Amino acid sequence: MPPKRQRGERAGLTREQVLDTALALVDESGLPALTMRALGARLGVEAMTLYHYVPNKDALIDGMVERLFTSAAREGRPGEDWRTHLCDYAHDLRAALLRHPGILPAVVRPAVTPATLDGVEAGLRVLTAAGFPLARAVDALNALTLFVLGHTAAEVAITPGEADAGSPAWLATLDESRYPLLLRAARTGAGTDDAARFSYAVDALLAGL
After folding, report:
1. Side-chain half-sphere CA neighbours of 12 within 13 A
2. pTM of the full structure
3. DSSP per residue over the chain, as a string?
4. Which long-range contacts (CB under 8 A, 24 or more apart) does 187-194 make?
5. Do the beta carbons of residue 126 and residue 82 sit within 8 Å?
6. What are the residue boundaries of the HTH tetR-type domain, all occurrences included (predicted)?
7. Residue 16 has what pLDDT?
8. How far apart are the two ends of the chain, measured CA to CA in Å?
9. Please, how many CA atoms are within 13 Å of residue 183, restricted to the half-sphere of its CB?
10. 94: Cβ–Cβ under 8 A, 6 or more apart, which residues?
11. Are residues 152 and 94 in contact, defined by beta-carbon separation less than 8 angstroms?
12. Using an 8 Å Cβ cutoff, are 10 and 52 in contact?
């Protein structure tokens, strides 16, 4: 490993490299393990060098959240239906969160970076162009985003083993006279596919909007 740069010395990194490395660190060790010192060690620089790229740890976390949201948000395509736009956004955001589940405890932070706000603005443009009043456009985008965050957080948190409580094998041991529908679902796999459940709920939400 090359020697660490001294305080105040630039490292030839980009902000994106710093943020992506921070995401990788959180994926491996969890959000509590993220410190400027640990991140600097991963990048081969002094912790103080990172302040050339992010002014403080809060800005670092905001930037990490930005990387996830901007991978899902985009401008609307000419002639694109608003439902298609929001459906793609929901699926892309879920995929990004599942790739980086360690950051999930922080994703409820409000959008504050210019790039994250650009993504919100793009979504609002699609909705208002489709005829949504601005207040309803904000509500729609917020409702969809919060659903994606909650569903994905549950997917990550609820991962029982094959015989753990709540698993299909565990459900199969229940009293059939009391829980006939749950037992049938466990035996057939009905409603156990996270991706299918997510798609169904997104479609239902968009139909309601």
Report:
1. 3
2. 0.85
3. -PPPPPTT---S--HHHHHHHHHHHHHHH-GGG--HHHHHHHHTS-GGGGGGT-SSHHHHHHHHHHHHHHTT--PPPTT--HHHHHHHHHHHHHHHHHH-GGGGGGTTSPP-SHHHHHHHHHHHHHHHHTT--HHHHHHHHHHHHHHHHHHHHHHHH----TTSTTSHHHHTTS-TTT-HHHHHHHHHTTT--HHHHHHHHHHHHHHH-
4. 192/168, 194/155
5. yes
6. 12-72
7. 93
8. 54
9. 9
10. 148, 151, 152, 198
11. yes
12. yes
- Are 48 and 4 spatial neighbours (Cβ–Cβ below 8 Å)? no
User: Residue 8's pLDDT is what?
Assistant: 38
Find how far residue 46's CA is from the centre of its chain.
29
**Whats the size of the chain, residue-wise?**
209
> Which amino acid is located at 147 in the chain?
F
pLDDT band at 191 (very low <50, low <70, confident <90, very high): confident
Give yes or no for a contact between 121 and 74, defined as CB atoms under 8 angstroms apart.
no
Cβ burial 101-139 (10 Å sphere, 16+ → b, else e): bbbbebbeeebebeebebbbebbbebbeeeebeeeebbe
Q: How far apart are CA 119 and CA 116, in angstroms?
A: 5
